[in-house]
Amino acid sequence: xxxxxxxxxxxxxxxxxxxxxxxxxxxxxxxxxxxxxxxxxxxxxxxxxxxxxxxxxxxxxxxxxxxxxxxxxxxxxxxxxxxxxxxxxxxxxxxxxxxxxxxxxxxxxxxxxxxxxxxxxxxxxxxxxxxxxxxxxxxxxxxxxxxxxxxxxxxxxxxxxxxxxxxxxxxxxxxxxxxxxxxxxxxxxxxxxxxxxxxxxxxxxxxxxxxxxxxxxxxxxxxxxxxxxxxxxxxxxxxxxxxxxxxxxxxxxxxxxxxxxxxx
Length: 264
Hints:
about 40% helix, Rossmann fold, 9 strands, about 20% strand, 7-stranded mixed beta sheet, globular, two-stranded parallel sheet, alpha/beta
């Protein structure tokens, strides 16, 4: 099977998925490439920083800024195996992919004919989106032989859109959903391949919940790939009342905290 992953440049959470996935999924030679797009699609670094400042506030923004700077610096170092024989520590998805011999492609023009032509060289059977910021168009969706799927941390069709873990905490949900679904034109639509739920603990922060669900995403995705390999995938229509949320604004975060929740 030839698999291509699509994701975004995220120093904090995307790598959590791939760390766990690479532990769970043994035939790593089947991963032909990981395509990394700019975060939040077309946002500039300034616009992204301003959005993060409005979201986190001054103190937490500084905390995340220091983490970001540390990851950026350490991410430029070559990956070397420690003298004590333990596994080498990686800080970025690029380092992790390099360690496992997986090709990284940095592109954001995923719907262009040029990109489709270049990615076709891998004869892809399965496209997998993990927090990719790009909306796939029908020509890209139709490219892999088996399917084009996405993992979304919500019980779709509820909580479509941005940062679903935030909104599930915001609305006092007792469980967070994880949905793996076929990609269709639109945002978080398409037939459901698998759905799971994980408990939300009373003192759990947004950071904690994202880390937990990313690890669970990876485990469930490894199982789903095996189902595709064995021809055992059964999809069902996405039914029920849906909802859609954009990225939280400053007032949303204020209410979130008033309800006893923390970001970090």
